Amino acid sequence: MTTDARATKAVIPAAGLGTRFLPATKATPKEMLPVVDRPAIQYVVEEAVAAGLDDVLMITGRSKRALEDHFDRNLELEHSLQAKGKDSTLRAVQASNDLGTIHYVRQGDPRGLGHAVLCAAQHVGHEPFAVLLGDDLIDPRDEILPRMLDVQQKHGGSVVLLLEVPQDQVHLYGCAAVEPTDETDVVRVTGLVEKPDPEEAPSNLALIGRYALSPAVFEILRHTPYGRGGEIQLTDALQTLATGDGDGHGVTGVVFRGRRYDTGDRLDYLKTVVRLAAERDDLGPDFRAWLTEYVGGTDFQQA
C-alpha cells in the first residue's frame, strides 16, 4: 500500500513523573533537565522541526508548566540580554521561541504511553503523525525521522524505529518479530511483545522512542485493554495493527544504526552530557583535556 500523505504533526508525551531522577525532579520536569546547556526536551523538538514537523503537541501533566514557559517568550530576560550586549546568548534564548507551533494538552490520569498517544487524537485528526519520546535523543548527525516518514509515505501504515540491543537487555524494551524486505534498513514487523523475557523474545530488535503512526492507531487504542504494568501499552496497539489487514494497518520497521542517547537512565544521562559536551567546538577541547587529566589523576583513582 502506498500513500501520498506525509506526516506534518509531532506528538511528544511528557507527562511522566521522572521518579528515577528524584529528588531533582520533585519540582522540575525531567524533560527540563539540562543536557549541556539545553533542556533535553529542546533537542527532541528541534529534531521534529528539522524533519518538517513544525506542528508539535506535547502531552503534559501536573507540575509541567516549566515546559510551556521554556518555549514561550521571556521579554524581560531578552531585553536585559540585549541591553548588556549579550547577543549570542540572546539568540540562544530566542531559538527556543521560534522552533515551531507548539500546543499542549494534559494527560489528567497517566495510564501509559498508549493513553498519552490517545490524548492526541483530536489534535491529529485523520492524518499520519509522528511520536517522539523525550527520553531518547537521536544525534542530529544521524537523521532518522525523515527516513521513517519516507518509509511511511511509501508503505503506508505505521513505522517503528528498531535498534539491535544485547539479548540480556531485551526485557527493557518492546521487541519485534520481523521479516526482511528488499531494503537493507527496512523490515516488515509481524509481531511485537512488550518487555519480553530474554528467552522468549522474538529477536533482539528493540523499539526505541520514534514512531510514525497511522491515525488508525487511535481506534485501536480506544479498545486496547490495560496491559503490562496496568497501563495502556502502545506496543499492544501496534501488535494489533501489525497482524490486522484493515485500512491503515501494517507495521514497518526501520533499523537504526546511528547514535542514540538514553536520558531516562541516570548513568546514561551522565554519559550523554559528557559525550555531547566533549564533541562541542566551543567546550570540547578544554573539557576533553580536563577529563583526560581527571580520569588519569590520583584523585579520581582514590575516589
Automatic annotation (TrEMBL):
Q: Which reaction does it catalyse?
A: alpha-D-glucose 1-phosphate + UTP + H(+) = UDP-alpha-D-glucose + diphosphate
Q: Where is the Nucleotidyl transferase domain?
A: 9-271
**One GO MF term attached to the UniProt entry:** UTP:glucose-1-phosphate uridylyltransferase activity
Q: Which InterPro entries does the UniProt entry name for this protein?
A: GalU_uridylyltTrfase_bac/arc, NTP_transferase_dom, Nucleotide-diphossugar_trans
Question: Under which EC number(s) is this enzyme classified?
Answer: 2.7.7.9
Query: What is the enzyme's main class?
Result: transferase
* Keyword Hydrolase assigned: no
Keyword Nucleotidyltransferase appears in the UniProt entry: yes
* Keyword terms of this UniProt record: Nucleotidyltransferase, Transferase
Q: Which Pfam families match?
A: NTP_transferase (PF00483)
Protein family per UniProt: Belongs to the UDPGP type 2 family.
State what protein this is by name: UTP--glucose-1-phosphate uridylyltransferase
Its lineage opens with:
Bacteria, Bacillati, Actinomycetota, Actinomycetes, Micrococcales
**Gene name of the record:** galU
